[in-house]
Amino acid sequence: MKDDTPHRPAVHALLTDGTTVRLRPVEPRDHDQLEGLYTEMSPDNRRLRFFSAGSRSAGPAADTVCAPARPGHRALLAERAGQVIGLAEYHAADDAPHTAELAVAVADGLHHRGVGTLLVEHLVSAARTDGITAFTADALSDNHEVLRLFADLGLTVIRHFDGPEAHCTIDLHVDETYLTASEARGRTADVASLEPLLKPRSIAVVGAGRRPASVGRALLHHLHEDGFTGRLFAVNPATTALLGVPSYPSVGALPAAPDLVVVASPAATVPDVAEECGKAGVRALVVVSAGVDTEQAEALLTACRTHGMRLVGPNCLGVANTAPGYRFDATFAAAHPRAGTAGVAVQSGGIGIALLEGLSRLGIGVSTFASLGDKYDVSGNDLLQWWESDGHTDLALLHLESFGNPRAFSRTARRVTRRMPVLTVDAGRTDAGRRAAASHTAAAATGTMTRQALFTQAGVTATRSVGELLEAAALLHAQPLPAGPRVAVLTNAGGAGVLAADACAEAGLALNPPSPELADHLLAALPAGASVGNPVDATAAVTEDALHTCVERLVGHPSVDAVLVALVPTAVAAATGDDLVRAVTRGPGRRAKPVIVVRLEQDLPVTLLPVTDGEAIPSYAEPQAAARSLAHAARRAAWLARPVGTVPDPDGIDTSRAHALANEFLGRRPEGGWLDPRVCAELLSCYGIPQQPWAWAETEDDAVRAAERLRGTDGRVVLKAHWPGLVHKSLQHAVHLDLRDEAQVRTAFQDLRTRFEGLMTGVVVQYLAPRGTELFAGVVQDGVFGPLVVFGLGGTATEVLADHAARLAPLTGQDVHDLITGPRCAPLLFGTQGGGPVDLEGLEQVLHRLSRMAVDLPQLAEADFNPVLATPGGITVLDARIRLLPRRPQDPYLRRLR
């Protein structure tokens, strides 16, 4: 069993009350503190820990924990302000290396704050990396706290009571139950840590000067003017008051430590200000200062972590909250945010100002706003959890240029999106060029594809611009979701209707003609000359009442999911006094289906038209914007209607052998590289991935004998050259097909050996596969997003046709369904050409097993299966390439601060 304790860096994490602790491996220098941890326990707690109330066990226990690193032992401690407050350790016996005995200790006075649970979570992650599959623990039967800790982890725990003792066995298999439990604990801690930042009772501004143009003064003015009801201070040694706000020479001189300090001082002063704030007991910082360099940023973050302060920024616009009783505006935007229900998190201050103004203009307003700037600490994931819990946010808007932990973001977003729409701008969509691809998978897996996979799986509505974000937000805020993509277009001008219909079709919406019954009902309400196709042309002569009747009849018909009304002002309506907009916005009540308006003369891209019962209807200046917004709403409705999806656990998987193969290969080649065909095949067999029978041959005679063994029913075989680094065999003309006899096999081998002399190390011999659909499946391990599974049409033209879909692993059943149905080639798999469907269940299994392999092996840099032969009788990988790199496992769901 390996021991890599020295290589595990210290991390910071949050306790249940939102305070920060540091977790790190135990070192010999910790001996005295650990002995003190034990001796300072109450006699009863020592009895529960050591089964004896005396203090004689403290020294030997500290000796054991601080002994030199050894296989089978790991100890983690939690410390705050340099003081050890908890310890968790395990010991594996030599005769049972996959099982280890667990022990936990928490300082008196710090129970029920999640110290022990947090330590055990980190120890579980480390133990799984070390190959340990179960913990055992002995506890006194009346040690209710530790027994509850084990029971609440979310892992399977078996307890056996033997007199005064309880013997516990904890299965370390991590499943959805464990992840959900850990996630819930993390959410509680995260929200508590954000309270001083987003609900401060007192605020101080550092860097508020006398110059009217200074950022600090603008921030102080905003806070004072907006009516912050808590205590407000300025920090400026040159004055005793600014804008009627009391000023003090330093944070340490304030009469009480504020919850939140907003820092607008020069970049060079920021680290010292942060350190002073930490020592004074400040709980949160917003650093708007720009120009903070790498060294200063490191010192800033160190101060925040050391003293347990949450940090927004640096280089940001600030934060604001409009909640009643907590309202404050610590930004230097031109205007105060309008109170409302949209949570907003951005990195760019300019984008933040645009969204604040747009949401205020629409009347949606903002619940909480955070400009994250360089995002050293507080992230979009933090804000999503805050909005999920705050009780008044019903719409989440994000503009993030980077993701610190995409897989954790995806889990959070999947949960939050089921409660409220989460919208984002897909920033950075374009690729300056595809990566220097060593395989078809790497060529296909662009940054755009990876981000789209993240957003699609998480149910996030991804738009292409800030304008589109606001357009979609207006509809999702004001109208119900459509049950499907069927749109009815109603207009008083034929040309406007055609534009709207074209926009809907281009957005992927369906425009079905009305049924005869619906057509008759519409014609009965409309003037002579009206046409009732789709669009419905009500003509310029339509009255307000007639238009209103048509809207209601369309909304009430089961064949219509949404109604788009395209209106233009006419002299006819002006002369009769008919208000066609009012025909759409007047009652009765809230409609069950979305209704939106397009007015080509409208000067703003989108507005919300008030409805008589207090609701609103979005009105767009462009039909394309209206159609895009409806399409976003329809996709959200479809996502919500789907089952949540689970990650299956395929049978017959040998994870231990897979890890051993990866470690053996990297032991021989520490720099990593492509597996040879034999190791590659063995790795695939660990995951039950079906392969075409094959043989390895290094000489001409070996190739002939292998061909004799492998000949199919028609006697034909294939020879494929191999050498380290060869990936695109067809481009290198390193394949000979349709070899029917010994002479052809010998000729083919001689040709390959001659042309690739000095390179070729051998050949792969396979029998010629039957006809079928050639597919492609692969994985790229993205350094930020994790493993991305790519699937689509295979063969030699896979990159040219670029018919691929992608999802981030681990794949749920829904993800696999999307992969199979997403590419344009999908109809071929379902037998639309008359040949019958391929083995769809077998194809699903291959994708699930490929996903599992990618999740199990962080060393797997690329896997490339091309072609994968799909027939009604089965799925077979004909050619597989796998590249490993020396990468350490990273637990994406482990609770820790960045």
Automatic annotation (TrEMBL):
What the entry lists under InterPro entries is as follows: Acyl_CoA_acyltransferase, ATP_grasp_subdomain_1, CoA-bd, GNAT_dom, Ligase_CoA_dom, NAD(P)-bd_dom_sf, Succ_CoA_lig_flav_dom, Succinyl-CoA_synth-like
Q: Which residues form the N-acetyltransferase domain?
A: 21-177
Acyltransferase recorded as keyword: yes
Q: Which GO terms describe its molecular function?
A: acyltransferase activity
- Tell me which EC number(s) this protein carries: 2.3.1.-
Keyword annotations of the record: Acyltransferase, Transferase
What is the name of this protein?
GNAT family N-acetyltransferase
